[in-house]
Write a structure and sequence with these properties.
By secondary structure, the protein is of the alpha/beta class. It folds into two domains: 63 residues, Orthogonal Bundle (Helicase, Ruva Protein, domain 3), CATH 1.10.8; 135 residues, 3-Layer(aba) Sandwich (Dna Topoisomerase Vi A Subunit, Chain: A, domain 2), CATH 3.40.1360. Strands 4-3-5-6-7 form a five-stranded mixed sheet. Helix 2 packs across helix 3. The radius of gyration is 23 Å and the shape is elongated. The relative contact order is 0.09.
Amino acid sequence: MCNHNNYQMNRPYPSVLLENAVNEFAKLPGVGRKTALRLVLHLLREDISQVDSFTEAVSVLKREVKYCSLCHNISDSEICNLCADTSRDSSVVCVVENIKDVMAIENTVQFKGQYHVLGGIISPIDGIGPSDVEIASLVERVKTKSVKEVILALSATMEGDTTNFYIYRKLEPFNIKVSIIARGVSIGNELEYTDEVTLGRSILNRTPFSESFKINQK
């Protein structure tokens, strides 16, 4: 009995069900255990119908979400709304690391071309090579479509620069314009944290990648 009481006293949660729920929420990126507990307690206070709507939305998302067969953006159909929009310039393709970067650039309302989501960047230290991201499909897209310019909008990190250079070399044979967003932008590691005005200007003030590469070599 004494051991049982000690066990109960050492447990941080009054309910195993509560603890299990907190453990699951804590697996989400950027969510610590205190935040996870706050979220779980919030759901406990909600009507069961609200909780059911929440869990159903997540479940349906996981089961039914698609990735655009052209740009690899999240979509409800085979081709995403951005690629299907005939008012956008399909000859200009902006290459980004992830879907959050597409959303960040779209919020600037400065870019009217299309996108290509790599789904990551080359990082040998993390075991991520060119074949692990959507570079081959980008090359095929340039090869088979009427693409005139590819804008590289990756993070200003060693991994981002490595990926930029690799893509540049792969696209060299096609004699198209390869440009890079203005590097004076203090974007840190991710485009999503850049303010919309600065990000928009960085796209409008993009420069040829070959010039940027020459500057970096000096």
